[in-house]
Amino acid sequence: MSLVCLTMLVPLQAQGRLIDFLAGPHAGQAEFSMHPVSARGPLVRMRRSEEQVQGYAERTEVRLILDRADCEALIGPLRALMAGVDGGFWVTAVERFEAFDAPPAALPEAGA
Fold it and tell me: 12: which residues sit within 8 A by CB, 6+ positions away?
């Protein structure tokens, strides 16, 4: 199994739709976290005048740890779900994924 981290950056108003999707059958048992971020860059369109003055936009960053094949299968439905929404995603390799209080064998190994 080869684990990856799928990171998504979405506007605050789209986070509910994304969380509903991830809590459903599409993402399986993928670990995910979500938190607010101040963002600027190619995935962020600063449409409000307040954002343009600040130089950044408030967004939600969502990260999932999952198998690479599951991630690839998830991207198509995510694109359909988020069509027309400002934001995007990137995928990075996960070298290690363990719980603090569980033996390493109890969790899937990255790169295995």
Answer: 36, 58, 59, 60
Residue count (the chain): 112
Say how many C-beta atoms besides its own lie within 10 A of residue 57's C-beta.
23
How far apart CA 60 and CA 14 sit, in angstroms, is 9
pTM value is: 0.79
- The string of pLDDT tens digits covering residues 71-100 is 999 999 999 999 988 889 999 999 888 888
Backbone φ and ψ of 52, nearest 5°? -65, -40
- Phi, psi of 109, rounded to the nearest 5 degrees: -90, 140
pLDDT confidence band for 109 (50 / 70 / 90): low
Task: Quote the CA–CA distance of 62 and 64 in Å, as a whole number.
Answer: 7
Q: Strand ranges (DSSP E) for 12-87?
A: 31-39, 57-67
The number of C-alpha atoms within 13 Å of 60 and in the hemisphere containing its C-beta is 15
Token pair 């459903």 is at which residue? 24
* 21/76 Cα distance (integer angstroms): 13
